[in-house]
Amino acid sequence: MNVDLLPHMFALAAAYGLALPIGWNREKEERSAGIRTFPLVALASCGLIQATERLTADDPEAMARIIEGLITGMGFIGGGAILRLKDSVRGTATAASLWVTGAIGVAAGVGSFDVALVLSATTVMTLWLLTPLKKLTNADPKDE
């Protein structure tokens, strides 16, 4: 049995690290998922890809099915973050962020670190830079 931890550790650490700023943002915004959840989602997604790579090495369709299952699972987890209130729906950004975080883990797991980095950076920029804009557009004129 050949054990080569270094490549796996690098991919797992990259997935964890790239998800951390997303979790930090959600934690600061006091959302249902935060600083612990997001890195764990990326870590699990990456780990599942890496754990099955020997099984799927000669069968790209098998890897595609595993990725498909992860994408579906992320949809279920994200669905749990969405709350429907009387007049509004909350948690859609957190749900979308969880889905992207799963994709970050998958990208790191298959060695597409450039894709994982772009997904993370784009998500962080969207959450941080567009939040003030969202608050402006949702401002109630009666409150001013």
Short description:
The chain has 144 residues and is mostly helical. Helix content is 75%, strand content 3%. The chain has one domain (5-136).
Give structural notes.
The chain is mostly helical and 144 residues long. It has one domain (5-136). 75% of the residues lie in helices and 3% in strands. It has six helices and two strands. A two-stranded antiparallel sheet has the order 1-2. Strand 1 (83-84) and strand 2 (89-90) form a beta hairpin. It is elongated and about 55 Å long. Residues 140-144 have low confidence and may be disordered.
Biggest sheet statistics: 2 strands, antiparallel
Structural class: mainly alpha
Poorly predicted runs = 140-144
Helix fraction, binned, reads over 70%
Order of helices and strands: HHHHEEHH
What percent of residues are in strands?
A: under 5%
Q: Tell me the number of strands.
A: 2
Quote the distance from N terminus to C terminus: 67 Å
Number of helices: 6
pLDDT averaged residue by residue: 88
The rounded Rg comes to: 17 Å
Task: Provide the spatial order of strands within the biggest beta sheet.
Answer: 1-2
Annotation keywords:
mainly alpha; 144 residues; 6 helices; two-stranded antiparallel sheet; elongated; disordered C terminus
What does the secondary structure layout of this molecule look like, with pairings?
Layout: H1 5-28, H2 37-51, H3 53-56, H4 60-81, E1 83-84, E2 89-90, H5 92-109, H6 113-137
